[in-house]
Amino acid sequence: MLVFLRNRVLSSAVPLLFVVLGVFFLARLTGDPANLYLPLSATPEMREAFSESHGFNDPLLAQFGDYLAQIASFDFGESLRTAQPAAEAVLRAFPATLQLAGFTMLFAIVGAVLVGSLAAYRPNSWVDRVASFLSATAASTPDFWFAIMGVLVFAVQLDWLPTSGTTGAGVWVLPIATLLIRPFGVLVQVVRGAMVSALSAPYVKVARSKGAGETRVVFRHALRNAGAPALTVAGDLAVGLVNGAVVVETIFGWPGIGKLMIDSILQRDFAVLQAAVLLTALTIFVLNILIDICYALMDARVRQGATV
Amino acid sequence: MKSPLRPPALAGPPGRRAGALLGAGTMLLAAGCTVANSGATAAGADTVRIVLPEEPPTLEPCDASLTATGRVTRSNITEPLTERVPATGELAPKLATAWDRRDATTWRFTLRDGVEFHDGTPFTAEAAAFSIDRTVNSGIDCNVAGYVFGDSEISATAVDGTTLDVTTAEPDPILPLRLSFVEIVPTHTDTSGKVREPVGTGPYRIDTWNQGINLRLDRFDDYWGEQPAYAAALYSWRAEGSIRAAMVTSGEADVAVGLAPADGAGEHAVEFPNNETSYLRMDAAKPPLDDIRVRQAINYAIDREGLVASVFAGLGEPAGQIVPDGVTGYNPDIAAWPHDMDRARELIDEARADGVPVDTTITLIGRNGIYPKAAETLEVVQNALLDAGLRVEIRMLDVNAWMEYLLRPFPADTGPTLLQAQHGNQAGDAAFSLGQIYGSEGAQSSWGTPELDRLIQEAELSSDAERQAAFAEALAHQDREVVRDAVLAHMTGIISLSPHVAYEPDSATNDEMHLAAMRPAG
């Protein structure tokens, strides 16, 4: 198991390194931030002084070397925009996104298991058809459109919910619903497919013949076996939440890392962008390792046959 | 980053996974319904709630020429010595009560007595001198310094407690106007770096700033002037215009700024001329744009009336010069170019006959979101220019990439370009526009002529009625003889205003939004 884990960590660390490299160099290809931070009438000398003082005049490789040295001492640089430590901004924003993503995945998984199992229990019944139609719609709805419509309907027209912000319990509903819609739609279909085959498996017949109740048959026997593919997809969807978080946080004024990332891209705030991407990549890295561990626990073949 | 291995669907499962997931979820729920990183700040009835497009990056007073900073800081938290009244264009007293020019390079200011900073420090001539020096000479990259003073030498001396002398290396007839951008801070303000939360003399002081969430200002009880109507102001920010508008509609905010016609402010929308003028800057150094007939043809080809009526939803005014009415130097005799497609085609054909390479592809360089419907505007222009017989492509860029084209030195190896640009003259004097936009060496200028340079320099050194006439002449010369640009329209801004708040936006609203000008309606 430890050998397996070591191999998985090493093989996942390579993409992580590429992400850090990529963000660093791509960000700097987009032009000198001096234009954004100096007045339009700034003299060439002022621009030169700005670039010099922030080290943008050094060769790219030298800048990258300095950056790695900084990271090694847990110094993530300073925000160009606010002149505060980048790490501070990122760590302040991260929990809000984690909350949003955590609740979203929880609701997506629980909801999808219930709906998907219901649909699979009577394939091709009207319940199944409605569930399949709705989940396909949900999986293909653009989150941006859904968010704006949600605000117009539930906040402006009906006045049931706040438009956005962080005050009160109502603020959770629209952001989570928006972020939830795609993973939920996909997961319902995955659960349904897996459950249909699980419910027709021999052991379910055995369980029924032994007199087990239907609920027990569905949720204890069949679901256990349908869980693995659902988990696989859920892991990938959780990674995809980073994209969703950018849209949701920007629209709803949610003080998380997605909004921070998009702002720092637009503002060419390199230090904050790098810190945000690094932390997000690390999170995804850890999540992947956890998913792999789950597989390994489930299936000895994965453990022993794991070659990297 | 997918796992390369997928377990078979029917692998033996432990039930621990679901348990762990549920456990994690329960923990999240147990964390309560409070959003992480959200400082709760209540807003009572005596609080005015304003929603901005973006959080101020800082409240540093010497960066107050940045819109996002200035609209919160200026004349709310900190105050300048003088202040321009947008409606009249006059300069009004603020922390200075009077000023006069003692000689060609020296101005003397008499300062208000009995004014206190928020921390109880008295306001004196030393503080005024210190603030000017900190803004212009301290080397902390103050945005105001570059915006207002360029690289001109300036020094301030306290004569006594309420008298200040300001000396410039070159004669400067509009120094008091320039000083309206210098916000006054106490002498113990940091000079080695910027301050995020300044102390000032303004009617409001900073109460709490929950970064990423909101910013609350409280009324300053010892303010020297009239106490403002609202006890507090609560700023929040949303990037999406339709959400800002919805917040006013649903009663979550009282004022929403920076809206577009499509954002749906409905009955709460208040329109106001916002000081901005949209224009296309022609790269007149490169063929075929180096031929004045081609530049004239471009001006004739664009239907400004149609553009304003359809694309700008009727908001705005077709324009023929870069500054709007109300700015010193505005020339009422310059009309917007008429739409005359036949004349445009004729001019292009003439140029072609003389061997001008009018078939060279011209690139329209646009900036997403520079004003509402920015991309559609360029499509309308492209259509018109194709119609006139030119070859035109569009490239839309984000702010930073577009800036590379706006400011010298320009990117090498680009062909002839028309740059989508917008200019807002915050200061109310054409000196803040002409040199940098039309001067041969101007920071945002693609091309100029020696004659136009001479006219601009003369105007910059003259005062009063002469100054107005000289700038008006420079603008007319540009329009007739140089034709460097295709000016499109003087723009109109939209804010959304709750029926519970009385506030009249003016041309300065975008750059400084005075809380003292707001009061409960009725």
Structure characteristics:
heterodimer, A: 308 residues, mainly alpha, 13 helices, flat, B: 522 residues, alpha+beta, 11-stranded mixed beta sheet, 4-stranded antiparallel beta sheet, 14 helices, disordered N terminus
Q: What this model shows, in words?
A:
By secondary structure, chain A is mainly α. Chain A has 13 helices and no strands. Chain A has helices at residues 2-29, 34-37, 44-53, 60-72, 86-121, 126-139, 143-157, 173-199, 202-209, 214-252, 257-266, 270-298, 300-304. Chain A is flat and about 85 Å long. The two termini of chain A are 14 Å apart. The mean pLDDT of chain A is 83. Chain B has 14 helices and 19 strands. Chain B is globular, with a radius of gyration of 27 Å. Chain B has 522 residues and is an alpha+beta fold. In chain B, a hairpin with a 6-residue loop joins strand 2 (82-84) and strand 3 (91-93). Chain B is 28% helix and 23% strand. Classes of the chains: A mainly alpha (308), B alpha+beta (522). At the A-B interface, helix 2, helix 3, helix 5, helix 7 and helix 8 of A face helix 1, helix 4, helix 6 and helix 11 of B.
Q: Unreliable runs of chain B, pLDDT <50, ≥5 residues?
A: 1-30
Radius of gyration of chain A: 24 Å
Largest chain-chain contact?
Answer: A-B, 94 and 73 residues
**Secondary-structure content class of chain A:** mainly alpha
Q: What percent of residues of chain A are in strands?
A: under 5%
Q: How many distinct beta strands of chain B?
A: 19
Q: Helical content of chain A, roughly?
A: over 70%
Q: Mean pLDDT of chain B, rounded to whole units?
A: 89
Q: How many H/I helices of chain B? A: 14
Number of helices of chain A: 13
Major sheet size, sense and barrel closure of chain A:
none
Unreliable runs of chain A: none
Proportion of strand residues of chain B: 15-25%
Anisotropy-based shape of chain A = flat
Q: Indicate the overall shape of chain B.
A: globular
| Estimated radius of gyration of chain B | 27 Å
Largest sheet of chain B: 11 strands, mixed
